[in-house]
Amino acid sequence: MTSAVAVRPGFLKMAIRRYLPATLIFLGGILLWELIVIVFSIQGFLLPKPSRIATTFADEFTVVVPAGWFTMKEAIGGFAIGAVAGVAIALTTARWTVVKDGLMPFAIAINATPIIALAPIMNNWFGIVNPMAKMSIVAIIVFFPVMINMVRGLTEVDPGQLELMQSYASTPRELLFKVRVPNALPFLFSALKVGTSLSVIAAIVSEYFGGSREALGIYISQQAALFHFAEAWAAILVASFSVIVFYLAITLIERAVMPWHSSIRNVAGT
Amino acid sequence: MNTSTAVAIEGASKIFNEGSADQVEALEEIDLQIEPGEFISLIGPSGCGKSTLLRLIGDLLEPSTGRVTVAGKSAHQARLDREYGMVFQQATLYEWRSVAKNVQLPLEVMGRDKAEREARADKMLDLVGLTEFSSHYPWQLSGGMQQRVAIARALSFEPSILLMDEPFGALDEMTRERMQAEVLDIWSKTGTTVVFVTHSIPEAVFLSTRVVVMSPRPGRIDAVIDTELPQPRDEDTRESDRFYAKLTEVREVLRGGQGK
User: Fold this and answer.
1) Which of A31, A244, B91, B175 could make an S-S bridge to B146, C-beta 3.0–4.6 Å?
2) Is the peptide bond preceding residue B232 cis, with omega within 30 degrees of 0?
3) pLDDT in tens, A45-66
4) Which fold has domain A48-268?
């Protein structure tokens, strides 16, 4: 790696080798979908052709993209509330173990229940067009995995690392911030990454139970009810694209926060 | 008791899970005195309590009976006064900290200012020959280099006693012998008292001023053997007749202890 000129071709070759298979499978899948719809003459309201979805997406762009942003604000807002609360509660369990012993069984039980079922109730609590109704569902759904993972990360510390801090006669506070918290970061970020798709799913599905007309979930359910499936698919495209961007944003933060972590050094290919 | 004694262990025993069905008597009535600047090895088969004894000295465990005195005070007070540098079989580096930051960690805990921390870390990394790796992360280093960082970290705050628990147990033979020479070099430069747990007879004899031979169930001291090898020790020491004689002496005590 002496000069940019020398690096470039090798880098390009590596990028091609790495991304080519996925690109080919993606394009092949789209092509296959298109062909199946044509060959078996599948009705457009059952499964529209990808080309049809693409043109509909272009036509509906000024509707589906703002709708996507409206829903993403609920998802991100709820995600932030849930994540901050999850980390905060996990930190108190590290300080007072009695909180952990009392809370964890319930947290694990609640995490296993379908929280989305609360959506109609939240609509009643906050009002059907109030974004807080959706954000609260998102927040609860994100809260539990974040809290449970964070607690694990704070607890599952290498015993040698604890003994070493003990031998330095460190205070509990130093042990928390110099060892337990950094140790918990990989756990936290894996929960946050799961949380990105969970939060968007939660926001859209809770919109299915009613909400503002600007919302993506409302748009999808209304278009589907009218058999406008190409429009519904175009909106789903927006949703999946939003999740990918959200996920990548969290991944970028993860890299900035944990440049030392193994999941990153593998990606870096060193 | 002489206050200049580095470590004095008097009638120390350790029973794990005392009173329950899985009670284990790890150590029985241990008496041992270590003078300042000595290099002591604890050797014995698995389960002889050598690591437990090391942890009693370092106040990571409390004795069930008896007393451990370090530098004229209780082991507990000695830990609070940061008298101990510890090195384990695993390097136990904090993977989120660079090499330099790992070496600085004990100094951070002790509230030393940044300039002093950096100066000390530079000095220690120079001592173990890792200056150019100071900004690397632990995963970028080999096992031997990681263990050198652990040693640099243990010495960074100039503890009066270095406690080492099979520090080279996970290294290959070549690296191991090189690390032994380095530890002896560091020991001669710093004058630190070292307590070193190992199950390698040549390692114990090569490094130590005295070898403490232990036997299991319950852990006790069978013999304390003065190695009487001249300092400084080098590769020639390993090939000397006296070295072989001492190996045999330690081995025979170990075999006797096993047979009981």
Assistant:
1) B91
2) yes
3) 788 889 999 999 999 899 999 9
4) MetI-like fold (1.10.3720)
**Residue numbers of B between 151 and 180 with CB closer than 8 Å to A:** 163
Q: In one letter, which amino acid is A84?
A: V
From chain B, the residues in CB contact with A165 under 8 A are 109
Chain A CB contacts of B84 below 8 Å: 167
CA nearest to B103, candidates B70, B139, B136, B69: B136
Q: A160–B84: do the CB atoms touch at under 8 Å?
A: no
Say whether B60 and A179 touch across the interface (CB within 8 A): no
- Tokens 């000129």 found at: A5
Q: In chain B, what residues touch A175 (CB-CB under 8 Å)?
A: none
- Whether the CB of A175 is below 8 Å from some CB of chain B: the reply is no
Residues 59-88 in B contacting A (C-alpha not used; CB under 8 Å): 60, 79-82, 84-86, 88
Q: For B251-255, which contacts have Cβ atoms below 8 Å and span 24 or more sequence positions? A: B251/B201, B253/B213, B253/B222, B253/B223, B253/B225, B254/B43, B254/B44, B254/B45, B254/B201, B254/B213, B254/B215, B254/B222
Per-residue pLDDT reduced to its tens digit, B177-217: 888 988 898 898 888 999 999 989 999 999 999 999 998 88
Residue in this structure with the two tokens 């704070």, named with its chain if needed = A154
* pTM for the whole structure: 0.84
**Rounded CA separation B22/A126 (Å):** 57
Domain boundaries, chain A: 1-42, 48-268
Establish if A258 touches chain B: CB-CB under 8 angstroms.
yes
CATH 3.40.50.300 domain span(s) along chain B: 7-83+159-259
**A169·B80 Cβ contact <8 A:** yes
Chains A–B, number of C-beta pairs less than 8 Å apart: 57
Residue linked to tokens 């380095």:
B182
Nearest CA-CA distance, residue B204 and chain A, Å = 23
The ipTM value here is: 0.86
Q: How far apart are CA A46 and CA A49, in angstroms?
A: 10
d(CA A9, CA B193): 57
CB count within 10 Å of CB B80 equals 12
State which residue of chain B sits closest to A160, comparing Cα positions. B92
Question: Does B218 sit behind a cis peptide bond, omega within 30 degrees of 0 on the bond before it?
Answer: yes
